Amino acid sequence: MPVPETEVFDRLRTLVAIDDAAARPPRGIDEVFTGKPLGTVPIGTAEDVAAAVARARVAQSHWAARPARERARVFHRYRSLVVAQRAALMDVIQAETGKARWAAQEEVMGLMFAARYFARVAPTLLDERRVPGAFPVLNRAFVDVRPKGVVAVIAPWNYPLVLSLGDAIPALLAGNAVILKPDSSTPFSALAGAELLYRAGLPRDLLAVVTGPGPVVGAAMVDCCDYLMFTGSSATGRTLAQRCGARLIGFSAELGGKNPMIVTDDADIGRAARAAVRACFSNAGQLCISIERIYVHRAVAEEFTEKFTAAVSAARLGAAYDNSVDIGSLISAAQLRTVTDHLTDAVAKGAQVRTGGAARPDIGPLFFEPTVLTGVTEEMVCAREETFGPLVSIYPVDSVAEAVAAANDTEYGLNASVWAGGLAEGERIARLLKTGTVCVNEGYAPAWGTTAAPMGGTGISGVGRRHGPEGLLEYTEPQSVVSTRFLNLDPPPLVPRDLWQRVLMTIARSLRLLPGR
Ligand code: NAD
User: Fold this and answer.
1) How far, in Å, is the centroid of ligand 1 from the Cα of 211?
2) Which residue's CA is the nearest one to ligand 1's atom 13?
3) Are residues 171 and 264 both part of a single domain?
4) In terms of domains, do 387 and 320 share one?
5) Catalytic site residues?
6) Where is the active site (predicted)?
7) Nearest-atom index, ligand 1, CA of 184
8) 245 and 285 in one domain?
9) 351, 204: one domain
10) 192, 12 in Cβ contact below 8 A?
11) Protein residue with least CA distance to atom 19, ligand 1
């Protein structure tokens, strides 16, 4: 099992945007599969953030002055570099997260898609656009789209490359600078992604990766930057939303999920059962959009459960920097504890373990078997709380209406999956679900990969959207410029005010006859 070389981590460490890094205490990062040290990064401070923001403001004023088309060229080059360096990127991601190779590849592909999509659409979406003025001829109007300034990107550990750089890309393309804080346990994936962006020609001060604890470095970022893009738990999202509110700065928050899958009685049960393995256990279930609740029509529930548990039992759990395994490790002892606690609670209250159910220290310190439960009831913690691990529950239902009601009975609203006999029926059910994305005949990946469509959550799953035009424009401030010519709105000389008001009213009433108004 080849571990990436220590030199890689030593090189990446030098990219941390902290002036006097040697004066900061180091934080060690270990290889998840084995617990062996990989390298260290400095633990930054609020002063380090302030210094990075000051440098970023200078760099941003030059960057924003460059045409969007020119900025986009950097990201076209970036996409090519990501493709060329994909194996090295996957090695780093796997080393510090312990995920399986294919889950690391999902990140690399997500980054490629984001770079390509936003680089293509940014020049058009950011172009100044003419709009009809209040009064024809008299008013001429256009809307200019301007960057926010310096954007704070606070990222989680589960998809540490794509949920950091993937969000930095649209923010940068829109003309902003970015201060990026990776999770404390996964700095190297973000640094590896940033390294390629510098190589593609992005000035260093425009994207500053500052490492350190969330409550110190992350909080300082919210205090100094002009916009926040946060991905993480709903609890932290709430805290940061209040902080943004106090400063009246905008934010986008991509938070947790308790995502449902619905399987109807006429669905292809074999296909649904096989695909559900990926839908539930990508990155060992540590994925905000993966499935934790499966509602299956009672007529096919036992068939689905048997096929699904057989496919789950056959999945290869292991530690390897290649495609020889299906499911990797959990990332931390805290994650292992949460999964164990949710499982113990469910079993104590009567749930049945259909497959899995045990930690696997024989494979690595943080491995846990993919686990399928039936008989889960309301009083069990895992019925409503996000486990964010390899634990999924199957619930038989008597109708589609019951499945939809149960799926929607949650504070979360991130992603859902629907398996039905036909696409039209699948899409009909999708429209009844209160989630930001729905995948028909898949778990989550096509919605994630459709970069042209917005992605995000309702309820406590988030505010705002990444991807799609919304995912670029949220990093901008529109400015409307409206010029008045020939006359202004005062009555012309010798025209009585009464008559003038009647003229204006007549014009206002007839505006509906003109197109685009
Ligand atoms: P977390 O909220 O603990 O941490 C996320 C980030 O916030 C980290 O970088 C952390 O250092 C930082 N942070 C923590 N406390 C902070 C504070 N007080 N001030 C500023 N920054 C702070 O979340 P986590 O446990 O790392 O991630 C798992 C959660 O993230 C799950 O709930 C998961 O569903 C969610 N998630 C959501 C998405 C999405 O796109 N919707 C994607 C991935 C993960």
Assistant:
1) 15
2) 214
3) no
4) yes
5) 254
6) 254
7) 11
8) no
9) no
10) yes
11) 215
Residues 123, 243, single domain; the answer is yes
- C-beta separation of 263 from 272 below 8 A: yes
- On whether residue 483 sits in a domain, the answer given is no
- Structural domain boundaries, residue 172: 6-255+468-476
Which amino acid belongs to residue 83? V
Mean predicted confidence (pLDDT) in 268-293: 97
Whole-number percent of the chain with pLDDT over 70: 100
Residues ≥6 apart with Cβ < 8 Å to 498: none
Q: Look at residue 488 in the predicted model and tell me its pLDDT.
A: 84
Distance 310 CA to ligand 1 centre (A): 33
Give the closest residue to 224 by CA, choosing from 61, 63, 57.
57
Between the CA of 7 and the centroid of ligand 1 the distance, in Å, is 29
Residue 463 lies in a domain: no
Quote the strand ranges of 182-331, DSSP E: 207-209, 227-231, 250-254, 259-263, 291-297
Tell me phi and psi for residue 255, to 5 degrees.
-120, -155
Residue from 235, 307, 299, 316 nearest 273 by CA: 307
d(CA 252, CA 241): 9
- Between the CA of 426 and the centroid of ligand 1 the distance, in Å, is 32
Ligand 1, atom nearest to 243 Cα: 19
Q: Quick: pLDDT tens for 419-435.
A: 999 999 999 999 999 99
The binding-site residues of ligand 1, defined as CB within 6 angstroms of any ligand atom, are 154-159, 163, 181, 183-184, 214-215, 218-219, 231-233, 236, 239-240, 254-257, 288, 386, 388, 414, 457, 462
User: What pLDDT is stored for residue 330 in this prediction?
Assistant: 98
Same domain, 343 and 324: yes
Please report whether residue 445 resides in a domain: yes
Q: How many domains does the chain have?
A: 3
Atom of ligand 1 nearest to the CA of 236: 2
| Planar angle of CA 361, 364, 370, nearest 5 degrees | 75
* Residue 458 is assigned to a structural domain of this protein: no
Task: Kindly indicate the confidence band of residue 293, based on its pLDDT and cuts at 50, 70 and 90.
Answer: very high
Closest CA to ligand 1's atom 40: 254
CA distance 12 to 176: 23
| Residue from 27, 154, 179, 339 whose mutation best tests the ligand 1 pocket (most atoms within 8 A of CB) | 154
Out of 43, 223, 231, mutate this one to test ligand 1's pocket (max ligand atoms within 8 Å of CB): namely 231
pLDDT band at 5 (very low <50, low <70, confident <90, very high): confident
What's the confidence (pLDDT) of residue 4? 76
Among 16-25, 370-379, 508-517, the range scoring the smallest mean pLDDT is 508-517
Copy the structure tokens of residue 377.
Answer: 């009831």
Residue 1 has pLDDT above 70, yes or no: no
Under DSSP, is residue 506 helix (H, G, I), strand (E, B) or coil?
A: helix
- What pLDDT, in 10s, does the model give residues 327-362? 999 999 999 999 999 999 999 999 999 999 999 999
139 in the same domain as 50: yes
Q: Are residues 210 and 269 in the same domain?
A: no
The CATH number for 415's domain is 3.40.309.10
Over range 209-224, report the average pLDDT: 98
| pLDDT confidence tier of residue 517, bands split at 50, 70 and 90 | confident
